[in-house]
């Protein structure tokens, strides 16, 4: 026996099927939106510690640092995974007068000049969640462009009368979002490691004395970098070859050994003469 559906019944079925389809589409859209992280003004996932944090500390005490610094920062940004934070700090000249903003950071003479997360480039994002063209535009406008401004402004400051390396490094454990709750922490320090803070202590003196003497004179301790992947970019200055002696190297080797950094100078050992020919 064949049952014929009335026009009203057929209309109802079409409505029900259409409604079910709309609900399914709505649920799919809701599900995809739920996968899209909500980012704050620093492009980091809201209410969540960064997946990783790369901190770069730059010593810009010599004018030639203006040449090498841009490439160093751009390399760090290029290698930064999506949703990981990059923070760039400079070591300030103690003859500067810190701004209110710099004082508010609470890390003087370590000064933050940039800090943001990589929101993901067009080829990094999940296209089901974020459009590739939108992601690339967001990356360029909100991450890469501000970073380029910082690179230029920081490079223009190169050259200083003092170099408080010990004081700056002692502040690294207090960097925001750089605690043990962050699973992947890395630190890159680029410096000639020539502490120069007269009259308290300077490594331009004929006798640099030992580490404990320097720490006491400056009034700082050795930080604990345990659990942090540390890379030291030890820049040898051609004009300071009489200062960067074996005693100077041993001084800093002891410093980083106390800071729980094994083989601190195993990554690189550059001279400014060779680095100065690199393109900015």
Quick recap of the structure?
This protein has helices spanning 7-35, 65-78, 100-105, 132-156, 165-170, 211-218, 246-258, 272-275, and strands at residues 52-58, 85-91, 110-117, 184-191, 196-197, 201-202, 229-236, 268-271.
Structure description:
By secondary structure, this protein is of the alpha/beta class. It folds into 2 domains: about 1-35; about 50-275, Rossmann fold (3-Layer(aba) Sandwich), CATH 3.40.50.410. The protein is about 40% helix and about 15% strand. It has helices spanning about 5-35, 65-80, 100-105, 130-155, 165-170, 210-220, 245-260, 270-275, and strands at about 50-60, 85-90, 110-115, 185-190, 195, 200, 230-235, 270. The protein has a 6-stranded mixed β-sheet with strand order 3-2-1-4-7-8. Strand 5 and strand 6 (about 200) form a beta hairpin. The N and C termini lie far apart (about 85 Å). About 30% of the residues are buried. Residues about 20-35 and about 270-280 have low confidence and may be disordered.
């Amino acid at each position: 026996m064949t049952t014929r559906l009335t026009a009203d019944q057929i209309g109802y079925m079409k409505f029900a099927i259409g409604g079910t389809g709309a609900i399914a589409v709505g649920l799919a859209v809701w599900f995809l939106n739920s996968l899209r992280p909500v980012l704050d003004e620093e492009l980091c996932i809201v209410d969540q510690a960064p997946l990783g944090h790369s901190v770069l500390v730059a010593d810009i005490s010599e004018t030639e640092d203006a040449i090498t610094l841009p490439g160093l920062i751009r390399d760090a940004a290029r290698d930064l995974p999506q949703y990981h934070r990059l923070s760039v700090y400079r070591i300030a000249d103690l003859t500067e007068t810190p701004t209110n903003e710099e004082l508010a950071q609470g890390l003087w003479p370590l000064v933050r000049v940039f800090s943001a997360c990589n929101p993901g480039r067009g080829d990094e994002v999940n296209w089901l969640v974020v459009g590739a063209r939108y992601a690339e535009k967001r990356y360029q406008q909100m991450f890469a462009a501000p970073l380029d401004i910082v690179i230029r402004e920081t490079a223009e400051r190169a050259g200083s009368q003092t170099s408080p390396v010990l004081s700056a490094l002692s502040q690294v454990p207090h960097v925001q979002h750089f605690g043990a709750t962050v699973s992947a922490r890395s630190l890159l320090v680029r410096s000639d490691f020539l502490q120069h803070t007269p009259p308290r202590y300077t490594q331009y003196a004929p006798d640099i004395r030992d580490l404990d003497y320097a720490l006491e004179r400056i009034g700082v301790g050795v930080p604990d970098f345990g659990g942090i992947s540390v890379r030291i970019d030890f820049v040898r200055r051609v004009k300071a070859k009489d200062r960067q002696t074996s005693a100077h190297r041993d001084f800093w080797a002891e410093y980083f050994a106390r800071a729980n950094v094994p083989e601190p100078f195993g990554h690189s050992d550059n001279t400014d003469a060779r680095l100065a020919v690199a393109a900015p």
